[in-house]
Amino acid sequence: MNFGLYLPLLAGLACCNHFRLPPQARMEQALPSALAMGLATTIMLLCASSLSGLAGPGHDAAGLPPLLWPLLSLAISALLLSLGLHRFAARQTQQLGLGWPWLLTNSLLAGLPLQWLLGPAGSAMQLLAPLLSAALFTLLLVQFATLPQRLQRCALPSWLSGQPALLLCAGIIALALHRLGVCL
Amino acid sequence: MSDFTLLPNGMKLPSHKQASTTRPIATAALPAQLQLALAGSQCCVEPGQRVLKYQLLARPDNALGLAVHAPTSGHIHAIAPYPQALPGTPLQTALLLHSDGQDEAQPLAPPPDRAGQSRLELAIFLQDMGVTGQHGPLLPLSWAASDAPLELLIINGMESEPYISADDMLMREQASELVAAIQLLQQRLRPTRLVLVIRHDKPAAISALRTAAAGQTWQIEVREAPYPADDAPLLTRLLGGTAETTLCLPVAGVHAAGQAMQHGLPCISRIVTLSGAVEHAQNIRALLGSPARELLALATPHPYSAGIIHGGGLRGFTLADDSVAIHQHSNGLLAAAPRPSSSVAAAQPCVRCGDCATICPSQLQPQELYWHCQTQDLMQAQDWGLTDCSQCGLCSAVCPSQLPLLDSFRNSSLQLQADQQQQQAADSARQRHHFRQFRQERDKQEKAQRLAERAAQQAAKLAQTPSAHPASAAKPEPSAADKQAAIAAAMARASQRQQHHQGQTATAATAEQDARAAAIAANRQAAIDAAMARAAARKAAQDAAKAGADSSPSAAGPTPAPEPAPDKQELIRTSMARAAAQKAAQAAPPAPTTMDDDKKALIAAAMARAAARKAERDDGEQET
Amino acid sequence: MIIIMLRLVLLLLAIWLLGKVLRRSAQQLTPAPATTAPLVERIDAILPQTQCGQCGHAGCHPYAEALAKGEDSINRCPPGGEAGIRKLAALLQRDYLPFAPDAPPQKPKAVALIDERTCIGCTLCIQACPVDAILGSAKQMHTVLADECTGCELCLAPCPVDCISMRPVGEGAGDWRWGYPVIAIQPVKSGTRP
Amino acid sequence: MTLTPLMRLGPDLTSRNRQQLLALLPALLVLLWQQGIAALLTLLLSSLCALLADALGQGLRAQPILPCLRQGEALLSAVLLTLLLPQAGLVLGGSVAVAILLLRQLFGGNGQSLFHPVAGALLLAALYLSPSPAPANPGLCLATVAGALWLSWRGIIRWQAPLSLLLVVLISLPIGSGWLLGQPALWLLAGWVMTDGCSTPVTPQGRMIYGQTTGMILVSVAALGQPSSAGLLLASILLLLSAAVPLLDALTLQAKRRM
């Protein structure tokens, strides 16, 4: 697995994340939701990498399989965040669709391949990669939140309007991201 | 500010004015028939009647209406709905005047005494003379009735619209009359500052005006401004005025006002530029109501020209019907050149080039605005600045997709206007409805109270004379009287309600609803009173406007309005008087002694007519 | 060490931003209730105020009350037209509905006209008019103030001699208002000048 | 007599496309001079495929075919692609046809394509071709730049996005983005694809942000990642950012709220 597969994965994940909102959700509602989810993913990835940093070189010694500790740290940070969100802003969390299943999915799918791809590399890369990945993910989320409004003005055939058009866009974006990932 | 509007492709906006300024203003021949639109005015002649030149044909019946005078002598042929110039607008009632070719004029009434004229009187006089400004009369009546100070009076001679040179030629050839008119306006309106602003591309007009206006206290200002320079709000800003204290008047209107004020001459003609694909581009003085096709024929349009454009090169629109007549705002008629075959294709979708937003002088986003106008989303269109659009037409002219941006904005703003008027009407209807509910409730209460009082008095009387009622004498307690009073009141209420139901068969309002509505009405009483007072003031101003110069209408404007009740009564009285007069005109005035018989006969006749009509209708329904 | 500090700072920044987004969306999704007029009044402001009762209620305000309580559907006002339904749908956050099949058909705007030769002065129509648009008194001819008539047709039924007819009004939009030389859209408003 | 009342102050779509094609002429001549008959064949093939695909799309959507073909949008795409991938031949023909059908006609034809077909076709072709970086070609670059400058002087293309991209590339010369400047693909995509209104933001500010972001991603990937073809890289970044255009529009286009 290389970035050529990881980046399209992010696009697919963002598309799925957009579809969790009700289909008639307007941009005024989808945009904050996308922003919040992007920020939540940033927090989770940073938190998880801090956790693995804390464990540091010790997790080899503990005899755990190589990917178990990152997986645990990602899951823990996702659950911690959803707990915190539920504690402090339950209503908005529900309105914006930041449920724990989605947080966990995003955290694992966006974070685990990254850990694997980077391996136990230098810490600068360890810091930068989650940030960049979360930023790209946020960008993709926001794109899917704003695209429907523009697609309304296109003369799309009727069978394509709505979610199928978004899927088509997701496919094109995934193709572009794949090419970009290959170049990385 | 740059010299010309710089177009996205680096070119400058061509003005195309030279062609029509080489010849002096000609006078159009008398057309065989004239079509005079009655917008906001009430006709005071009848079909078949012979009218003389300058005779009043219609008088204004609202603040935006204008009087219509006969441009020549002839017979009124018809009063009927005719198409308007702007395609897509509804038919408008117009007078069709067949000219008899004699051009026989009636003597002009001398203009009223200048010295003691207030500005409202002047505004009404100009309205009666048919002198047009930007919207309705030259001096807006609402402005004239207020006591807002006039700090800046702008005479607008910019005329930046391509092809149009009507104002230019007017300023060249009739500079002295114009200067006299401006002087008169200055004397009457007494502005702090009076500026005639003129665009730099009219050197001949500038020199003519400078010569004529030597020694005047007002100034002529020459400005270089890009295309929509004649936009009044823009001009006001350019000259450092504020919207509240500035008045911007078009040159042609000022000239017509001068003619009216000096000689009592009503406005029956205007200068029209004939240009475009024609042999002899020129300006002519044309009678209002002349058919566009006949006028343009004077300039010999090229045989290949396709249609007539009403207005200038950017704001103009193609006339759907060549026989449409010119009106007060028709500053130009252009013969359209046929489009090159490549651009015949219909409008393409927007390619988001952004040229329209770049060129828009009001810094709007025409492509967004167009989208919302297309989807009929007027709220969004307002959010995107539909009301700020000056409809200069630059966006339409640069759009590579040839989208009908200007047309769309025009339609949407007309629709917006209609919506706003409807909303105002609904608001006033709501206030009247609430007031009515309040009044009904109050009347009911008063009546019940009166009846209760009467019953109590009767009971008291009964109590004083117990011998009269032996049955009740045994127990002469006040409770019996109370009961009776209560019964009487209940009866009264019941009869009242019955009456009420009889009146409002369809609404079937219940007592609780009435009570609640009355409570709401009582809460709003203050607001309604204020609104009634405002309405009364407005009515008074309108009445004053109708009454003309002989009344003293200045009292109606800013002074505190009289109480609503007398005004309403007066209104009712006048309407009754009008109705009585009409009735009197229809039938011989019945003598008081035979009134009842007459009335009975009348009622019987009416009932019979109604029955006949009903039977007819029933028959008709059965047949269908 | 620096990396850990940086990571912590970034983490705090992200949490702060998330909090901000959440607070902002909370404000956006629930408008402040104190500043808005009661719902009934806002609905009433949309209704055309013909007081015609075609919706099955005794006037516009009762219909507004029924709408506010959710007791009636938004597609019962023919004078309000499609635009009215759209506005109501937006205000009440309901889906747009086409006109109810049992609602009376839409008619072009019309005003009542009293045939002055037939009128017997019975005042029944005056009592029926919900907006005080008919003038007259007993045994005198009545007349309709055309400017104030809403076209509700409530005066037609009570008239014993059928002397009232509805006269359609043409739309007044004319190009004389935007022609020369400036095409400003806003007409001279009475409100802007003191 | 050239009088057109109801004045038109700007060129219409057909004339804009014609001028854009005209601006590509010097580059095309240079290419033919460099590569000879093979490039001409590619040009013919891709043009044919593009026109056929466009006609097919219009036909399937039941729209008039000839006016659309005459407008030259498809032809412009084909010429651009020929200049970008002169050796591709059949692969190019297929990818341009698919891209036009998928990215242009499916979204509703002219003026509706959210993603530029040229960028899409480049990515499609890259599935079959090796993405090795092309050698620098100063002659072609110069011819392209001349055409783009002429267009910009005529006011046909908007300069904000390409200029922002170029500025970023120039500023980051020290980290090794210099080789990009020798690539004709950079100039072609910057001059003809980044200036297309449908796949770029509509406001000047939005276009600047778009250009800068493109530049930053391009430079960082080109300088830090594995060596790859500049055209491919730029095309994929443009596609990715085209999806962000509604966002940029929403950020930079503000409705005038009523009081």
Give a brief outline of the structure.
Chain C is mainly alpha-helical and 194 residues long. Chain C has helices at residues 2-29, 39-46, 60-69, 81-92, 124-128; strands spanning 110-114, 134-135, 143-144, 164-168. In chain C, strands 1-4 form a two-stranded antiparallel ribbon. In chain C, strands 2-3 form a two-stranded antiparallel sheet.
The amount of beta strand of chain D, in percent, is under 5%
Distance between the termini of chain A: 13 Å
Largest sheet descriptor of chain A: none
Summarize the helix and strand pattern of chain A as letters.
Answer: HHHHHHHH
Structural class of chain D: mainly alpha
Can you give the helix content of chain A as a percent range? over 70%
Question: Globular, elongated, flat, extended or rod-shaped: what is the shape of chain D?
Answer: globular
Structural domains of chain D: how many? 2
Overall 3D geometry of chain A?
globular
Number of helices of chain D: 12
Low-confidence stretches of chain D: none
- What is the alpha-carbon Rg of chain D in Å? 18 Å
Helix percentage of chain D: 55-70%
- Strand percent estimate of chain A: under 5%
Count the helices of chain A. How many? 8
Number of strands of chain D: 0
Mean pLDDT of chain A equals 85
> Kindly state the mean pLDDT of chain D as a whole number?
89
List keywords for this structure.
heterotetramer; A: 184 residues; mainly alpha; 80% helix; globular; D: 259 residues; 2 domains; 12 helices; 66% helix; 0% strand
Structure overview:
The complex is a heterotetramer of chains A (184), B (624), C (194) and D (259). With 184 residues, chain A is an all-alpha fold. Chain A has eight helices and no strands. In chain A, helix 2 crosses helix 6. Chain B folds into four domains: 293 residues, no CATH class; 61 residues, no CATH class; 157 residues, no CATH class; 32 residues. In chain B, a hairpin with a 5-residue loop joins strand 13 and strand 14. Chain B is globular. About 11% of the residues of chain B have low confidence. Chain C starts with a helix and ends in a 26-residue tail after the last strand. Chain C contains five helices and four strands. In chain C, strand 2 and strand 3 form a beta hairpin. Chain C has a two-stranded antiparallel ribbon with strand order 1-4. A two-stranded antiparallel sheet of chain C has the order 2-3. The radius of gyration of chain C is 27 Å and the shape is rod-shaped. Among the domains of chain C are: 56 residues, Orthogonal Bundle (3-methyladenine DNA Glycosylase II, Chain A, domain 3); 64 residues, Alpha-Beta Plaits (2-Layer Sandwich), CATH 3.30.70. By secondary structure, chain D is mainly α. Chain D has two domains: 113 residues, no CATH class; 112 residues, no CATH class. Helix content of chain D is 66%, strand content 0%. Chain D has twelve helices and no strands. The model of chain D has no long low-confidence stretch (mean pLDDT 89). Chains in contact: A-C, A-D, B-C, B-D. Chains B and C meet through helix 13, helix 15, helix 16, helix 18 and helix 19 of B and helix 3 and helix 5 of C.
